[in-house]
Amino acid sequence: MDEKLILDGQKVANDVKEGLKPRIAVLKEDGIIPSLATILVGDDPSSATYVRMKGNACERLGIHSQRIHLPKETTTDELLQTIHELNNDPTVHGILLQHPVPSHIDERAAFEAIALEKDVDGVTSWGYGQTALGFGLYPSCTPAAIVRIMKYYNIEAEGKHAVVVGRSPILGKPVSALLLNMNATVTTCHSRTVNLPEIVKQADIVVAAVGKPEFIKGNWLKEGAVVLDAGYNPGNVGDVEYESCYQKSSAITPVPGGVGPVTISMLLKHTVDAAEKLLEAK
Ligand code: NAP
C-alpha cells in the first residue's frame, strides 16, 4: 500500500449485501425465506439497539427477522427451552443470542444449546473449534468481518506479525485463529500481558478488541501498521485513539463505519449460507 487508507466498512458491507441479493432471490424461488431469530434477554439499552439494528438489516434485505424479547427474570432453563424450540423450527435458519445475558443466566450453557447448523455467530464450542481448525462454516461475525475487510482491501496476512489485543471467546480468540489460518504470525494479548506497547510496536497488523475506549495509542504503533479496530464504546469511539493511530498507520478502520457495519453484513451472510445448506440437504 502506497498511501494511507481509511478502511470503509460501509463500502465492504454494501459489497457483501449486494452479493446476497441474488442468492436470496434464488432461495425465494424455491420457497425458502432465509430467517434469523434474535434473542434478547432483559432491557440493556445497548443490547436492544444492537438487536434492533440486526433485525432491521435483515428486513431491508428480505431476510425474515424473528425477534424474541425475554424478560430480565428469565431463568437459564426458560432460555434453553426457547433455544430448543428455535432449533426444532425448520423455518429458522440462524439463531443469535445477544450477549451479554443477565448475570444469573448460564450464558455458556445457552450458547452451547444452539444447534451447530444454526450457530451463525460461532458461539458454540463446536463452531469455535471448527473455526480454529480452519473448516468452520460460521466464524463469529466480528472476526469474520475483520477478515472480510482485509480481503476487500487486499491486505495480506501471510508472513505478517498480527497482534490481537483481547482474547474473548467471540472476538479476540477467534480472530487470532482466523489470522493464524491465513498464515500470519499471531500474538494474542490480554489484561495480564506485560509490556503491551512494546508488543504492539512489533505488529504489522493490530486488531483492537479490548473494550476500553481509545486504549491503543499512536505512539505504540510501528510506522505503517494496519489497524483494525473492533471496539465500540459509548460516545462512538473505538478501542484505538483514532487521530494518533491514523497518523502512524498505513490503513485504519474508523469508528463508527468500520468493523461494525461489516459485522452485521456477515450475520446476514451466515443466515443466507445456513438457508442454502438446508435447501441442499433437501
Ligand atoms: P471482552 O469480553 O470484555 O474482552 C476484552 C478483552 O480485552 C479481554 O480478553 C481482556 O483480557 C482484554 N483486556 C482488558 N483490559 C486489558 C488491558 N488493560 N490490556 C490488555 N488487554 C486487556 O470484550 P469483547 O466482547 O471481546 O469486545 C471487545 C470490544 O469489541 C468492545 O469494545 C466491544 O464493544 C467491541 N465489539 C464490537 C463488535 C462489533 O460489531 N464492532 C462486536 C463485538 C464486540 P482478559 O481476558 O485478561 O480479561
Automatic annotation (TrEMBL):
A GO molecular-function descriptor: methenyltetrahydrofolate cyclohydrolase activity
Annotated SUPFAM superfamilies: Aminoacid dehydrogenase-like, N-terminal domain (SSF53223), NAD(P)-binding Rossmann-fold domains (SSF51735)
Entry keywords, A to Z: Amino-acid biosynthesis, Histidine biosynthesis, Hydrolase, Methionine biosynthesis, Multifunctional enzyme, NADP, One-carbon metabolism, Oxidoreductase, Purine biosynthesis
GO cellular component, one term: cytosol
Binding residues for NADP(+): G166, R167, S168
Assembly description: Homodimer.
Name of this chain's protein: Bifunctional protein FolD
Organism of this sequence: Robertmurraya siralis
Upper taxonomic lineage: Bacteria, Bacillati, Bacillota, Bacilli, Bacillales
The gene coding this protein: folD
